[in-house]
Every structure is written in C-alpha cells, then in structure tokens.
C-alpha cells in the first residue's frame, strides 16, 4: 500500500532512493491523528473479521492543511490501528495474551511505523537483524534438508541473529486508544457505500 501511494502520488516515486527517508522524517513531525485525517486500509477488500470482498480503502477528514506527509502517516496509522484491533479481537476470542510483535518485511525498515505499532498496541515490537525472514526460514529448512544440521531447531539457532526491541511509549497510549475507538466505527460507516460503488463500477459504465 505504501509503495502504491509513493509510485502514484509522490513525484519521482521509488526511483528516488531517498524518498522513504524524506517521507518518514516529514511524517514524524506530524502529530498523532494526522491533524484529523484517517485512512481505512482495505485496498483489496478485507478478510478477518468482516470478510467483505467489497470493502474498500478510504480517507476521511481531509482539509486544506493536509499534504503528502499527512497521507503517508495516515496510511501507516490506519494499518497500525487495524492491526491492533485484530490483535485485541484475537486475544479476546482465543483467551490468550499476545505479549509482543515480530516485525518482518519492508515495513520493519520503517522506524516510524515500528514505534507507532508499539505505542498503539502497548506491546514491544521485535525487529530481526534481517527483514527477509521468509527467505531466511527457507534457508534454515534447506540447511537441515542438506544435512548441515541435525534438526530445524538447530539450524534456526545457528542461522538466526539478534533482535532489536522497540518498547512502547506510555505517554502516547491515551491518544492511540482514542484514535482506535474512532477507527473502530469506520468500517460500519463506509461498508454500504463501498458495496454500492463496487456494484456500480462492475457495470463497466463507459466515459
């Protein structure tokens, strides 16, 4: 989603090797809640818990003072709030406590998002020394299969590195809880409109 935004709406797109650093620095200066802008990150429908293929992404709260960095931060906050909401639902339904997150993939390279997830969830976020964890896991399995190690557990122990821990900042907790309650109602407020728009678009009305 972040790549989509940068490729389509940020001059130069990902051809500029400094673009994410620029966006991160600018978005870090914007207060929590993006000066009233919120994003729902359902670009391709949504699975758990709504199971709605017609759900769509939206931004709400646009004003004349919002710019590129606001949109970037709103996307990060939307994905974060959605993750926290899903985690809390899982904990409640399964009767368990999730004590920490392990961030992998491209998002794990974003210091702003890592801290945002820790703050909004109140849980530490662990960062592996390689964000390409899927490839590393495949390598561990292959190393065991090739007979280099006696078990996958042994291969994992030998081939994994240290993790960095991002601790939540308790001073931000109240703000994120308030934003979470606002976000909680966003899907129900937009679902019917999204279904009508999807149905209209599927008719293939010509220009």
SSE layout and pairing:
Layout: H1 2-9, H2 19-28, E1 38-40, E2 58-60, H3 68-94, E3 101-103, H4 111-121, E4 125-128, H5 133-145, H6 152-159, E5 163-166, H7 173-184, H8 186-202
Structural notes for this entry:
This protein has 207 residues and is mainly alpha-helical. The chain has a domain at 2-98 and 173-202: 2-Layer Sandwich (Nucleotidyltransferase, domain 5), CATH 3.30.420. 51% of the residues lie in helices and 8% in strands. The strands form two sheets. Strands 3-4-5 form a three-stranded mixed sheet, covered by helices on one side.
For this entry, give a set of tags.
mainly alpha; Nucleotidyltransferase, domain 5; 5 strands; 51% helix; 8 helices; two-stranded antiparallel sheet; 207 residues; three-stranded mixed sheet
Short summary:
The chain is built from eight helices and five strands. The chain is mainly alpha-helical.
Largest sheet: 3 strands, mixed
Distance between the termini: 28 Å
| Model regions low in confidence, pLDDT < 50 over at least 5 residues | none
CATH architecture of one domain: 2-Layer Sandwich
**Radius of gyration, taken over Cα atoms and rounded to an integer in Å:** 20 Å
Class per helix and strand makeup: mainly alpha
The CATH superfamily of one domain bears the name ATPase, nucleotide binding domain
**Inertia-based shape:** globular
What is the percentage of strand-forming residues? 5-15%
Query: Could you state the order of secondary-structure elements as H and E?
Result: HHEEHEHEHHEHH
